[in-house]
């Protein structure tokens, strides 16, 4: 009897932006549901900080892809595993691991297009876009915590984010207390990691907790913390202008590399979905509506160049062109949104709402 084939496991969280990139990749590559086990990690309860998860990914982030390494030379098949701990590497691995020739160990017969850029020049463009999306100034998770620039907005945001950060703080405090009491044995490095995370989480807990209070009712320390939060939030949204403008310029359109979907599109799709979601857009918005909401949310009259031909964008994306004036123009990011929104991968990951 043949041994069961060891499976890869993708650790993800449904609300995570970066974990959405490999989820999109699984669909685009036509992986069968029997090929990769999906394992949910609850970020709201700080499951990603637990020692069992840190053994897979010491940074405590999702996604992580755990892949079997098989030693087939030994008489007993022995499986070892390796963990791939970063979105870009995971997506490249998933792209290489299923090709048009893969017809074994899967129930899927879906075509498996290559998502690797087809030329050296495209590889450079793709690499630059991915790097920009993962850069500090574009950090979609920082913007998630910082999506309030006035006291009123902070009050609203705190309602949803306070339970999230409080749950994480509770877990971090418990892990640290257990390691101090000796109930849990971990390295000094792990303890230091938890301490850093606790300090960062605590900052948000304090500011969100005080969000209901008027400025006059705050202690000096709390007032300073609120002012510092609002200052940082404003700076983060201002910094986003350059990122959005650079993307709108560098993307060839409607996909990052023109008419062929590639790995960079998956990073951009997840990133833009998060920025749109923070800006109050919804999954049913078309590209122009979603981009208009992002521009309005960024504020200060910010607007993206609208020089890309709508008809051209649709032709390249394989979307019907009927009813479009030849002179009609839109931003490349709007054209990108319309092109990815049509895809089954997008519908699977974002059909129930942006995140
Ligand atoms: N550079 C990493 C970043 C991944 C990342 O930041 N993931 C977020 C979720 S989208 C996370 O797990 N954050 C840890 C936390 O929430 O504690 C990658 O690209 O995989």
Largest sheet, spatial ordering of strands: 2-1-3-4
Calculate Rg over CA atoms: 22 Å
The whole-number mean of residue pLDDT values reads 94
> Rough shape?
flat
How far do the termini sit from each other? 45 Å
Helical segment count:
13
Which regions are unreliable across 5 or more consecutive residues at pLDDT < 50? none
Biggest sheet features: 4 strands, mixed
Can you write the helix and strand succession as a string? EHEHEEHHHHHHHHEHEHH
Structural class: alpha+beta
Helix residue percentage: 40-55%
The number of distinct β-strands equals: 6
What does this structure look like?
The structure is a single chain. The chain is built from 13 helices and 6 strands. The chain starts with 7 loop residues before the first strand and ends in a 5-residue tail after the last helix. With 355 residues, it is an alpha+beta fold. Helix 1 packs parallel to helix 3 (87-97) and helix 1 (17-28) crosses helix 9 (263-278). The chain is 52% helix and 8% strand. Strand 3 and strand 4 form a beta hairpin. The chain has a 4-stranded mixed beta sheet with strand order 2-1-3-4. Strands 5-6 form a two-stranded antiparallel sheet. The chain binds glutathione. It holds the Pfam family GST_N_2. This is GST N-terminal domain-containing protein. One of its GO terms (molecular function) is glutathione transferase activity.
């Amino acid at each position: 009897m043949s041994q069961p084939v060891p499976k890869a496991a993708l650790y993800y969280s449904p609300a995570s932006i970066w974990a959405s990139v490999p989820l999109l990749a699984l669909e685009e590559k036509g992986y069968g549901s029997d090929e990769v086990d999906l394992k949910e990690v609850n970020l709201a309860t700080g499951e990603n900080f637990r020692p069992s998860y840190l053994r897979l990914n010491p940074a405590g982030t999702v996604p992580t892809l755990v892949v079997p390494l098989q030693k087939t030379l030994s008489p007993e098949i022995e499986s070892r595993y390796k963990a791939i701990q970063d979105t870009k590497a995971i997506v490249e691995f998933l792209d290489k691991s299923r090709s048009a020739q893969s017809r074994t160990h899967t129930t899927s017969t879906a075509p498996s297009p290559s998502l690797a850029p087809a030329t050296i020049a495209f590889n450079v463009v793709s690499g630059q876009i991915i790097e920009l999306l993962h850069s500090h100034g574009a950090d979609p998770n920082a913007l998630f915590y910082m999506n309030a620039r006035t006291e009123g907005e902070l009050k609203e945001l705190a309602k949803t984010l306070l339970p999230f950060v409080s749950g994480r703080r509770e877990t971090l405090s418990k892990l640290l207390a257990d390691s101090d009491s000796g109930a849990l044995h971990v390295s000094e490095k792990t303890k230091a990691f938890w301490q850093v995370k606790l300090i960062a989480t605590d900052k948000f807990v304090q500011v969100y907790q005080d969000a209901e209070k008027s400025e006059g009712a705050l202690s000096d320390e709390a007032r300073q913390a609120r002012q510092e939060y609002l200052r940082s939030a404003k700076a983060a949204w201002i910094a986003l202008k350059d990122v959005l403008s650079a993307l709108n310029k560098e993307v060839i359109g409607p996909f990052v590399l023109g008419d062929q979907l590639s790995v960079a599109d998956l990073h951009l799709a997840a990133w833009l979905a998060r920025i749109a979601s923070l800006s109050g857009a919804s999954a049913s918005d078309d590209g122009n509506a979603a981009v208009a909401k992002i521009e309005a949310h960024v504020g200060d009259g910010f607007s993206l160049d609208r020089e890309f031909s709508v008809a051209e964008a649709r032709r390249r994306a394989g979307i019907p062109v009927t009813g479009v004036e030849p002179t009609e123009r839109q931003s490349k990011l709007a054209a990108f949104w319309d092109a990815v929104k049509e895809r089954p991968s997008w519908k699977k990951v974002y059909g129930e709402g942006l995140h």
